[in-house]
Amino acid sequence: MTTVTPAEGVNSDFVVDPSEFAEVQSKPVYEAIKRVLDIVAASLGLLLFLPLLPFLAILTQLETKGPLFFRQKRVGQNGRLFNCYKIRSMVPNAEQLKVEYAHLNEATGAAFKIRDDPRITRVGKFVRRSSLDEYPQLFNVLKGDMSIVGPRPQIPAEVKEYRPEHRIRLLVRPGITCLWQISGRNDVDFEEWMRLDRDYALRRSLALDISILVRTLPAVIARRGAY
């Protein structure tokens, strides 16, 4: 195996040698065009989203005291760690309670999901089912941490549990929506999730990205697997 020297801000535990996945083609023109479209889309999305923030802040504070935004370290492209932003949908001490509720985990593989998670607030259930909790990730898109379309970023502890073949998803920039998102989200088991992300890494193109975006709104409305 070739030794890959991690860049600044990259965790060496998550660096992937591209030669291990030679089938993933380099697409510089596609990536450049996609980056421009990401910036435009994220900027417009934030303009539409910002007026909702005061209402979400009031509703969140009325139920539980704590910050409106939740940030968590996630693993991005080529092992780069970044702070992923979300609207807080859980009680402030949710991370500490995760160990207590570990026995309720319904997800397979390297993931943690509970359908009726007791840590989720009433307002949190609404923002999750409507996917409003994901909108702050538009800031991540502007920063270059994420793309509009790409594999959902996972936390370091989960990525450490990947089998070697799962790491192919780390070769592409993570995103807000993806094939997993439009295929049932949490109703999709872990291996199928990884298969979908592998498929995206191999077939990524502007046409596929547009197709995923078109199918995202109906998926959000249907709320399948949204919990």
What is the topology?
Blueprint: H1 28-49, H2 53-63, E1 69-75, E2 81-87, H3 94-97, H4 122-129, H5 137-143, E3 147-149, H6 156-159, E4 175-177, H7 190-203, H8 206-222
Parallel strand pairs: 3-4
Antiparallel strand pairs: 1-2
Structural features, described:
- There is one protein chain.
- This protein has 227 residues and is mainly alpha-helical.
- It is globular.
- The protein has helices spanning 28-49, 53-63, 94-97, 122-129, 137-143, 156-159, 190-203, 206-222; strands spanning 69-75, 81-87, 147-149, 175-177.
- Residues 1-6 have low confidence and may be disordered.
- The chain has one domain (33-222).
- Strands 1-2 form a two-stranded antiparallel ribbon.
- Helix 1 (28-49) crosses helix 5.
- The N and C termini lie far apart (39 Å).
- The relative contact order is 0.16.
Distance between the terminal alpha carbons, to the nearest Å?
39 Å
The largest β sheet comes out as:
2 strands, antiparallel
- Using the CA coordinates, give the radius of gyration: 17 Å
> Structural class of the helices, strands and pairings?
mainly alpha
Instruction: Give the strand order, joined by hyphens, for the main sheet.
Output: 1-2
Number of helices: 8
Note the run of SSEs as H and E: HHEEHHHEHEHH
Principal-axis shape equals: globular
- By DSSP, the count of extended strands is 4
| Beta-strand share of residues | 5-15%
Calculate the mean pLDDT score and round it: 89
Poorly predicted spans: 1-6
Number of domains: 1
Assign a percent range to the helix content: 25-40%
